[in-house]
Write a structure and sequence with these properties.
nine-stranded antiparallel beta sheet; 5 helices; 9 strands; Protein Transport Mog1p, Chain A
């Protein structure tokens, strides 16, 4: 973003020399000089103050804008300090069979008003679809391992609630890609997975929580723009967010080299046998608190879904 420079230009005053009148026999009486009344001086003073005030406000506004922009895209953005996450819901929703089928995930689609708080405006067409974990995970996991990723950290490259390497990668559980929104380097998407039972979904959340803690960084075999042969990825657990008692939440942040989408905020939300993943990818302009507020809205909606099966 380019800021236009503001220039204050002084207009030169034109000095006019007035010629002397020719000497005459009669002495002319000098005309009295025009005196400005008090009212005129007040008006001039008010005008000067108004101009100075405008310039001061404009300068402060530009300084605040630049400072805010630099703070947003700074690689030193601090993380929110708060309570640690709890991967188990306080009051888990237990159903005799399945609480939800895969169609329930589509009910969490967001609107333009919802994503406006992330400064994202454009819905990406033709991204929704259905598949299974076993259909998509092996290819993702294979590439992850080829790039030097650890098996324990195979939750990092996914865009739905699954682990791309290991026993979970062969699961027949259905997965639904619900929606994606994007504006410039900012992007958010939503995907859901239905487990056979609440217990299995809860076990997935606890496993994910443990993996996030065990994977503070990954050194990937990817060349960087600076000429290095590897690319460092750092993983940081997010502070707990405010969710309803029936909802569990596990969140983490992926950081790479500052640039487009250098931060990914990821939250997995669970209620019953349904787990929904919410991702927000940003170059730093979307702050962690914005993501937390956005995710809390989705957690509230998840809590309001009516079970589709008894």
């Amino acid at each position: 973003m380019h800021l236009s420079a503001i220039a204050i230009v002084r207009l030169p005053h034109t000095l006019c020399a007035q010629g002397e009148d020719e000497m005459s026999e009669t002495t002319a009486t000098p005309k009295p000089r025009m005196r400005l009344g008090l009212g005129w001086w007040v008006l001039i003073a008010v005008g000067v103050l108004a101009v100075l005030s405008f310039l001061a406000v404009a300068g402060l506004g530009i300084f605040a804008f630049v400072n805010h922009s630099l703070r947003e895209t700074s690689p030193d953005q601090p993380f929110i300090e708060g309570s640690p996450q709890q991967p188990d819901a306080e009051s888990p929703l237990i159903c005799p069979k399945q609480c939800f089928d895969i169609t329930a995930a589509t009910l969490l689609a967001v609107t333009a008003e919802d994503v406006a708080q992330l400064s994202i405006n454009d819905e990406v067409p033709d991204v929704s679809g259905l598949s299974t974990v076993a259909d998509v995970a092996p290819a993702v996991g294979e590439q992850w391992l080829e790039l030097g990723g650890d098996e324990e950290c195979a939750f990092i490259p996914v865009n739905a609630p699954y682990i791309s390497v290991g026993p979970d990668s062969t699961s027949p559980d259905p997965v639904s890609w619900v929606q994606a929104w994007e504006t410039d380097a900012e992007m958010t998407d939503i995907a859901g997975r239905v487990f056979p039972s609440t217990e299995e979904a809860s076990a997935f959340m606890r496993d994910l929580h443990d993996r996030v803690t065990a994977c503070p960084w990954q050194d990937m075999n990817l060349p960087t723009a600076g000429g290095a042969d590897t690319y460092l990825v750092e993983i940081t657990p997010q502070a707990a967010i405010d969710v309803p008692d029936e909802v569990a939440a596990v969140g983490w942040v992926r950081e790479g080299t500052p640039g487009p989408r250098w931060r990914s905020y990821v939250w997995d939300l669970q209620r019953g046998n349904l787990v929904v993943q919410v991702r927000v990818l940003t170059d730093g302009r979307i702050l962690e608190q914005d993501v937390a507020t956005y995710t809390e809205i989705l957690a509230d909606r998840l809590s309001g879904l009516q079970p589709t099966k008894d």
